[in-house]
């Protein structure tokens, strides 16, 4: 794997069964796997200065001739601005929780004072019950 334009250099060099040679700037950021005639290369933790055109090349034995793939891969790494909203959002959540708890306590105290049970209870009507049966009249005369 070669970088060709901005900063020309050999990023990865694999020679048959020997250990691969990896450019020190990609030491902990490059992984590769080999399956028969196919090599998969993965770059991690890209930085803005990694932007370049990357080309795969094959070196023929007993020759200094490199056969490169027709087209490379242009990789442009943009720097993303990170907003630190973690600290501020916890303050907002905390204050909102405290306000809701205080509001709930206020409502509970108010309802306790008003004694809500009395407001919603069915009031018994004043009723008088008289037994008008014959027995009760007969017993009253005696």
UniProtKB/TrEMBL annotation:
GO MF entries: signaling receptor activity
One Gene Ontology cellular component: membrane
InterPro entries: CD7 (IPR039090), Ig-like_dom_sf (IPR036179), Ig-like_fold (IPR013783)
GO biological process: adaptive immune response
Domain of life: Eukaryota
Transmembrane segments: 90-114
Alphabetic keyword roster: Membrane, Transmembrane, Transmembrane helix
Protein name: T-cell antigen CD7
